[in-house]
Every structure is written in C-alpha cells, then in structure tokens.
Amino acid sequence: MTTRVLDVSDLPMETADSRALLWWGNVGMLAIEGTMFAMLIATWLYLKTANFDWPPQSVPLPPVLWPSIALGLLVVSALFMYLLADRGAVKDDLNSIRVGHAVCAAIGVAFLVIRWKNMTELGFKWSDHAYGSVIWTILGMHTFHMLAATGETISLLVYESVWPVTKKQLLDIRCTCVYWYFVVISWIPFYFIVYVAPYYVRKG
Amino acid sequence: MTGIQSALDPAGVQAAQIHNLWHLFLWVCAAVYVVTVAFFLLALIKGRRRVEPVVDAASERRMTIAVGTGAGVTIVALLGLLTASVATGHAIGTFGNAKLEIQVTGHQWWWEVTYPHAEADKIIRTANEIHIPTGTPILVRVATRDVIHSLWMPNLHGKRDLIPGRVNKFWIEADRPGVFRGQCAEYCGMQHANMALVVVAESPADFDRWEQHQRTPAPDPKTAEQLRGRQAFLSLPCVNCHAITGTDAYATLGPDLTHLATRTTLAAGTLINNKGNLSGWILNAPAIKPGNQMPANVLDAQQLNDVVAYLESLR
Amino acid sequence: MSEYALTDERELHATWKPATGLLGWLSETGHKPIGLRYIVTAMCFFGAAGLEAALMRLQLSRPNNTLLGPDTYNQLFTMHGTTMMFLFAVPVMEGMAIYLVPLMVGTRNVAFPRLNAYGYFVYLFGGIFIYTMFALGAGADAGWFAYVPLSGPGFSPGKRVDTWSQMITFTELSALVVAIEITVTAFKQRAPGMSLNRIPLFVWSMIVTSFMILFAMPSVMLGSGFLALDRLVATHFFNQSEGGDTILYQHLFWFFGHPEVYIIFIPALGFISMILSAFTGRKVFGYPVMVSSLVFTGFMAFGLWVHHMFATGLPQLGESFFTAASIVISIPTGVQIFCWIATLWTGRLVIRTPLLYVLGFFIVFIIGGLSGVMIASVPLDLQLHDTFFIVAHLHYVLIGGAVFPLFGAFHFWFPKWTGRMFSERMGRLSFWLLLIGFNVTFFPMHLLGLMGMPRRVYTYGAQMGWTALNQLASAGAVFIVASIVIMLTNFFVSRRSGEPAGNNPWNADSLEWSTASPPPPYNFLHIPVVSGANALWDAAPDQPFVTGMRTHRREVLVTKTLDAEPDHREEIPGATIVPFFLALTTTVALWGAIFFAWWFTVGTLLSVIVLLFWFWPKREDVEEHLENERKFTLERGGEVPT
Question: Which of A188, C364, C545, C548 is the most buried (most CB within 10 A)?
C-alpha cells in the first residue's frame, strides 16, 4: 500500500501580511480595544440623555486650535506610516521604513506634548462631575494607546537602525502600522466628542 | 402555597392578572417539558435497541421533518406566550386616575411611608406599614434615600425597584381585606433580610377611619409614667432621629413614631410590637439587627419603663 | 511529488518536550499542560465555592438560625457567586478549549503559546488575590454583580468591593487572551482538508464563545473600571448627584452579564455534540443547523440584557422588545435539543458515564430553559425577580446546562488526558447522586420564590412557612457534595491504577482520538489531513498526512481560513519564563492600585520592561531566519543581496 503524503516543505516559513497568525492576534486585540472605545462613547451618550446640562455649565468650552492641529498631525502621521513604513515593509525597503518610523515617532511625541498641554488646561477634573469623569477617561485611555503606539514605533526604530531585520520583524512592523491606524482612527470620534460636541450639544 | 407573602395567593387586581398568566405559562411549559422528555426517553429506548445507527437519506429526511415540526410547534407556543405576556403587562401597567397616592421611601433598612396631601396638616407619615382601602386603584410612588431597594408585596403586585435619583411608580388595587407582608427584594446591605413591611387591606370605611386617626397629632400623656416618658424621650438621643407630631421632636432620620402603637410590628417587620420587644429594641437595636443605624441606648430601668409606657400610649 | 521524509520522531520530541523542574513549570507554554492547569485550578475554586454554598445551606436550614451572622453570610453569597462565575465556570471552559481545540483541529499548539501561559498566570493570581483578601477579612460582600450605590464609595467603605472589581480585571484579561488564541488557532491552524463545514461542533462552539468574550468583556471591564475609579479617585460615573447614573452600571454590567452565561453554556453545547456522537455511533444530526443555532444564539445573547432590569422601571415598550428577544433565544437551543434527540433516536446507544451526564443535561436543563421563558415575561418577572425562583432558574441552567455536560466531558476525555480508564461504577454512582441531589436541592426553590422568599437573605422567620422547603434544599446538598467527592476520588485513583485506555477507547470521531493517550507534546507525529466532518470515521485506510515540516523548530502549519488549504508555516515560541514575569508585573499594577493609585503606573512600567524581553528577537533566531530566507530565495531562482 502506498503512503500518500502532503508535502509542505515548499511553503514559505514566514509571511508579513494578513495571513500571519500575529496579524490576526493584533486584529483581535484591536477588536477588544475598539469595543471598549465604542462602549465609552455609548457611556457618554447615555449620560448625556440622563443630564439636562451636558456638559455642565461650569465646564468651559474647549479650545479649537491646538486639538485640531493635533488631529491633523495624527492623520498625517497615518499617511506617513502607510506610505513609508507599511509599503516599505511590503517591499522590504529598510530605508523607507526607518524614515516612516522616525517621522511618526516625532509626530507621536509632538501629539503627546500637545495632549499634555490640553489635558492640563481642560478646566475641570475627573472628580468634578460625571462629564469630567467620562472626558478624562476618554483622554486617558486614548493617551495610553498613543503612548504604547509611539513607544512601539521608537523601539522598532531603534532595533531596525542597529540590528538585522528579517521577515518576522517586517510582520511586527506591519502589525504596528495597523495599531497606529487604529489609534489615529479611534481618535476621530473622540475628537468630536471632546472638542466639537460641547459647542452643539449644550443647551443655552 | 397560600400565605401572607405569596404570589400564589393574590389579593389584588394586578397580582391576580399575573397569577393567571403564571398558570398559562406553567401549563404550557409543563406540557412542552413532558412532550420533549417523552420523545427523549423514546429516543433512548429506540437507540438502545439498535444494532447499527440509521443514517440513510430517507431516515435523515424524516428526522428533518420531525425537527422542523418541533421547531414550528415551539415557535407557535412561544409566540402565544409572548402575546399573553405583553397583554398582561399592558393591563397591569395602565390605570385611570388613582384615588389614593402613597409614597414609600426606602432607607437602610426600613420603609418610610407618606400619604401626601395638598394641605400640610393632612399629610400622614408613618413607617413599615401601609393601609389601603379595598376596591380602590392606588398609585404607589417609590424612591430611596440611599441604595437601591425593591418594594415587593406579592399578594398585590410584582416588585418595583427604588432607585436613587428616580421616582418609580406602579398601581395596586386590593380586592379583598386582609393583612399581608411585603419585603425588600433588592440586596441593600447588612440587614436586607430584615426589611419587611405590613400591608393592611381594609374596607373603605375602615380605611377612612384609619386615615383620619393618623392625621391627628400624638395623644398627650395621661399618666405620670407617660409624662415622664415623654420628657425622657425629648431629652434622650431619640429626638435626633425620630419625630412625634405634636411634640418638639421633628427629626426625619428614623421612622415617625406619632402613632407607633397602632403599628403591629417593629424594626421593619422584624419584631411583634409589644412591650418586651420594644424595650429590647430601644436598649440594643444593633443586637437584634446588626449593622442597624439605630444605636444602643443607655437608660436605667425607670427611664426605660417610662419611655416604653409613653410610646405604647401613642395610639 | 518530491521525495518525502517521514518525520524524525526523536527530533520532534526533543524540540517539543516540556522543560522540567520548577523553572520548567513556570516556563511551560504547551497547550495541554496549561489547559489542565486551568481545569485543576478551576476545580479548586469550584470546591471553595461549593464549601461556601454548603455553609449557606446550613445557615438557611433553620429559621432565625444563628450559625452565621449577616456579615459572614453576605460575604459567602458574594464569594460563592463570584467564584463560580469568574473563577470556575469561564476558566474551566477555557481550559477545556485550550486542551482540546488544537488537538481537534490537528495542530501542535495554540497560536500564541506565551500569551496562553500569561493568561493562566493572570487568572491564577487574580484568584489568589481575592481569596487572600477574603482571608484577611476583606471579602467582597455586595453580591456577585455588586450594584451601585451599595457597592460605591458611599456605602461600601474599605477594600472589599475594590478587591472584587479588580479581580474582574484579572479574570477578564485572562478570558480575552484565551478568546484571541482560540479564534486564531481555530481559523488559521486547521489540518488540511478541514474546511469550515468539517470543523468539529465543539470547536464551533468555542469559536462562537470566543467572539462573545471579545465583545462582552469590554463592557464589564468598563463597568468594574468605572466602579473602581468612583471608589478610588472620586470620579462620578454612578453618582446621581453629580451627573452620573445608577442604572448605567446595570446596563454596563448586564451587557456583559447576559452573554457571560452563554459564554459558560455554549462550550457545554459543544461537549454534548461530541459525546453524543461517540456514544450513538453517528454524526450529530443536522450539522448546518447545529452550527447556525450556535451562531444565532451567540448573536442574540447580546440582545437580552435588559431582562435583568425589568423591575427598575424602564419604559414598557423597550421591555417588551427584551421579552421577545429572551423568548426567541430559546428557539435555536430548542432546535439543537431536537437535533440531539434525532441523533439519539437514530443512533446505536452505548450507555457509559459520559453519556449519562449528557442525558442528565436533557432532564435538568430543559426545566431551567422553560423557567427562563417564564421570567422573560415582564409581569411574571416582576413577581419572580430577585427571589429564590431566580436562584432555582440560574442553577438549573448553569448546572444542568453547563456542569452536567462538563462532568460528562471530564469523564469522556479523562482517558485521553491520563491514558487510563476511570471506574465506570463510581462514574455512574456520582452521576445519579448529582441528578438526585441537584433536583432535591434546587426544585423546591422555585416554590420558595413564588411563596415570597427573596434572594440574599441570611435568615427568615419561622412564621413565613418556608422552613420545610429550606430543609429539603439543604438536605439535597449532601448528595451533591457526595457526588463531587466520589467523582474526584474516581479521577484521582484511576489516574494511577485505571485500565490503560489506548488511543480511542470510545471509538470517537475527532482528531484527538487518533493520537496516543496522553498525547505526546507535539500532538501528532504527522499533521493529519482530513476528508470529512467526522475526521476519523471519514478517513480512508491510507489517509494522507503532512510531511516536510521542520522538526528542529516548533513549527505549525497555517492554512487558509475557508477551506484549510496549506498556506505557509510559522515558528511559534517554545518554553519561556517571561509570561510568568509579565503576569507578576500585571499583578503589581492591579493589586497595588487598590491601595495606592501610583502602583498602577509602577506596575505598568515594569510590564513595559518585561514586554521588551518578550518581543526582542533572539540573536540566533534572527541569524537562522536570515539563513532560511536566503536559501528559500535561492532555491526559487531568486537573487539575494551579498
């Protein structure tokens, strides 16, 4: 009796795209965080319907300039991440990747500085009222992710400037790009909630 | 089954409607169970008898029809139950103008009862006991001073939660006289188990008499004992929490004691209202209800006797 | 076809064998040891929660009993519910999945072995955390769902509720980790030929469960997080007087809480299918309908949560929607039951202990499902909510629906885990004791609820007429305890002295039965190829298998999602102690935070450092990768940079 076999020795040993296990794990993690963010937004909406004054009268209207600059920077960084780091990883172009990471790391740090300034100038604390609690939680959670994403980008930049990069690292880089997009895209609804909604939602 | 706190012993319009719905659900669900388990047991018998599993196309088709029929029957039965449920919910939830309104405010671990009135001197304040006239739709508004409680008087209606910042409401209507019991049905802390109330359903004439009486201020002391008792009451920590209309005691932290002696229980349904229990409660409430807000009190025998005599006179 | 090389078993064994000693135990990343750890740890917590229940039944066996005071009793019912739900029921199902799913889909390990190890340690530390605090007098005491404001800063001073809410963080983190692993393993690592319509029903149930975990856990993370923030740093999410809302907590909790019970129940539905299939000798009837029912139930579970809040005074129209949804969800489960009855009807029955427990499911769970239909009705629920009727219902569905199948599964897979058969006589005895004891304990509670006995009461008056039924319920508990003791004794003794089991003592159909008992660390000598939904029964005498994988590295085969065609190979990590350290730093962050908020930052920074160790590539790995890539490219006529 012959032994029928399925020989897989021809198959590649590493991929840096959506077929990889880590890619799916990353997407799973983003699904979890995304759900958390969605529920945070739902919490904001729920408390809005439970309150006549939302935001409360004691809350000053938020600034427009610097938060919008920050948002713009973030969106731009996503483009850089995609065009340089992500496409660079697909093409195995290490220089592109390094430049992309450097630019995004710089933007990330700038964003975090602006964020710090904004948070200290909010005009209310998390312990002042429920509105403060929700807004500070939104800012806190997103900042946590921004710190993580920027930190990851800097670590990768350090690694790829000194040590050899294999396909496994290219996969890591692409997963980090996806995480970066998530951090950018998730900020957009939050930006509207924190900096735009008060102008339209407050009664009187 | 019957009992003073039983959903199976309805004494009110709403509870009766729920009870009818219960019967419908019980019989339908029991039938579903019996039929399903019968088929299940039959399947076991057939399966034990087989030598080989039967998986040919004809048999699978028969099984498909069987499963489909089962699903269809189930869906129809469930739809029927759903309809009955929604109809009952509508019936118990809507009412015309209530002839009487009662406000119940939950505290850890007692029930503050108020019968509101446009004229301030006609407002009734009592605790842990409700009187209602039979045959009369009554609006019950519920609120809480602290945590979530739930007012449940099974013989009259389902329960309603008392939620901070909200006033919930529901309608009850007793259809026969009797004495029933309600109990808190949402875990509210240490003494959740001992937060009950007495519900007295009586004829409208009896209720009117009760209502008139409750509106009067506390009776004046008639004996020396009672007089000493009132003086003691007004100088002891009692006045920090309890009110007695017609005296200088007007604090609202604890139950109103104006007509304490007309109530059948003490400590939110925990004790029968008699001299011994009242004495024990005054001396050391935390021993009876650990965690209770009412502290132990230091009184000598004479003082205790006098205070109890006074409180027992508060008819 | 090129020359193939049959796998070198010795090298495969050397690559996959677990490390030994204490260091080895802490560095374990194999899915079978970790799965068994989850199960054993969960059963320890089951025992603790069972003791708590026994004490409660003792207290309630007499009116005005003074065995336990209110504070102790309130902690006991809270710890019982919390332990059963968070530290037993979900982890034990996870453990079963971690052990079985890779074997059932025909791979060597889960997709993320280090994450798996981390998840277990986080779960273990979370359980140790809450029980340490319990022993120190700071046991949670606000109920297993801890409604505000009772659980808030105003009415629950001290660390009790902080401990409770932080323990949730531990266990939910662990559950989320497992959910990701199971999903990725089940979708990407299936043996060639195992297309979606050939996936074993237990794996399907775990896929559905994992998706549910993914979308439900964040809600309780937020709810318990907001509670912790309200208590520790004075936020006002639930503070009515500062714009917060009491009911928000209930929405956040139950949006998780309802799917949670299905997260516990759906894996059990998977067990039933696997066991029924083996003991009827046929595939479960109606595979597509079974899978659709699982998926539909998983979706619908998210649309029921308000039925826990019917007494809070929400608008009637909204409540009716949730009544309808709560009734409709019984339809797919009912259809599954009908399909199983059809399977039994047309199968050839072999009665053994695993099957007995599954048959017990039918008798017990259906009662729970029907009492569930009753309380789905708002008017009925207004009477029955928060009474012993609910206690009866939840135990009928959880014990009938999850524990009976789970114990059946323990007996079913015991030979695979240990290589030995258990005592069939002891198995049957433990089954009958459980069936009888359970019904004697919990059936009377339906009546107690109707007769007015609320939940969570440490005592009741003699005049209420509840005494006799309470005594009956307490008596039944003795049988339950006896059943568990006999079952555990059966397992302990049979581990050493049971009959050798062989690969497939039940002649079952899924892949785990094709390998040795217990399986070798690499699971299969050759990754199998699958030709049907019942892998072993549909296998040809010369069923092909996979060759050409590397044996000096821990390599798994990654296949395409829909049809499981081989796609590429990936190396997964071996033994490492880093996950253990990450779990330690996580514990520092979470446990410390309830005492002093800055511990959270310290713990997070420490975790970042450990994560650097986790992710930093090893020099020799990088060099081998580069070498492989060079060879791979050259063999295909490509060019490599010099």
Answer: C364
**Partner-chain contact B67 C458, CB within 8 Å:** no
User: Smallest Cα–Cα separation from B88: which of B23, B177, B132, B138?
Assistant: B23
Q: How far is Cα A98 from Cα A85, in angstroms, rounded to an integer?
A: 7
Is the peptide bond preceding residue C513 cis, with omega within 30 degrees of 0? no
Burial bucket for residue C430 (CB in 10 Å: 0-12, 13-18, 19+): buried
Cβ pair C237:A13 closer than 8 A: no
| Min distance B32 CA to chain C CA atoms (Å) | 8
Sheet with B160-162, side-by-side order of all strands = B129-133, B196-202, B178-184, B149-152, B160-162
Partners of C420 in the β-ladder: C500
Cα–Cα distance for residue pair C204/C291, rounded to 1 Å: 7
Report residue C472 as tokens: 């009956």
pLDDT at C621: 82
Q: How far apart are CA C587 and CA C167, in angstroms?
A: 10
- Give the lowest-confidence range in C38-42, C316-320, C459-463, C539-543: C316-320
Token pair listed for C512: 């785990």
The closest of A41, A185, B164 to C222, measured between CA atoms, is A41
CA dist., res. C432 & res. C357, Å (int): 9
C67-98 pLDDT tens trace:
999 999 999 999 999 999 999 999 999 999 99
Q: Are C313 and B168 within 8 A, CB to CB?
A: yes
Q: Does B39 touch chain C (CB under 8 A)?
A: yes
C-alpha distance from residue B286 to each of B190, B282, C69, C137 (Å): 11, 10, 12, 21
CB-closest option in A40, A155, A167 to C222: A40
Those residues whose C-beta lies under 8 Å from the C-beta of residue B285, and which sit 6 or more positions away, are B267, B292, B294, B295, B296
Which of chain A's residues have a Cβ under 8 Å away from the Cβ of C187? 24
* B85 contacts chain C (CB < 8 A): yes
Nearest chain C residue to A46, by CA: C248
d(CA C383, CA C399): 24
Check CB contact of A3 with chain C, cutoff 8 Å.
yes
Residue in A21, A32, A163 closest to C188 by CB: A21
Identify the band that residue C4 occupies on the pLDDT scale cut at 50, 70 and 90: very low
Q: Of all helices (H) and strands (E), which one includes residue C570? A: strand C566-571
- Smallest CA–CA distance, residue C165 to chain B, in Å, is 17
- Note the maximum CA span of chain C: 93
Q: Which of C625, C628, C633, C640 to mutate to test the interface with A (most CBs of A within 10 A)?
A: C625
- Chain C contact present for B119, CB below 8 A: no
8 Å CB contact between C64 and C459:
yes
CA distance B224 to chain C (A): 37
Instruction: List the structure tokens of B279.
Output: 């004495």
- What is the per-residue pLDDT across A113-154, written as a single tens digit (0 to 9) for each? 999 999 999 999 999 999 999 999 999 999 999 999 999 999
d(CA C96, CA A48): 43
DSSP code string of A153-174: HHHHHHHHHHS---HHHHHHHH
Element (H, E) at A30: helix A21-50
At position C573, the amino acid (one-letter code) is: P
Which chain B residue shows the shortest CA-CA distance from C379?
B89
Calculate Rg over the CA atoms of chain A.
21
Residues of C in contact with A163 (CB under 8 A): 617, 622
Whether the bond into C518 is cis, omega within 30 of 0:
yes
Cα angle C430, C431, C433 (rounded to 5 degrees) comes to 65
Closest CA to B83 of C371, C320, C319, C322: C320
**Taking the mean position of all CA atoms in its chain, how far away is CA A91?**
24
Amino acid at A72: G
Q: Give C68 to chain B, closest Cα distance, Å.
A: 12
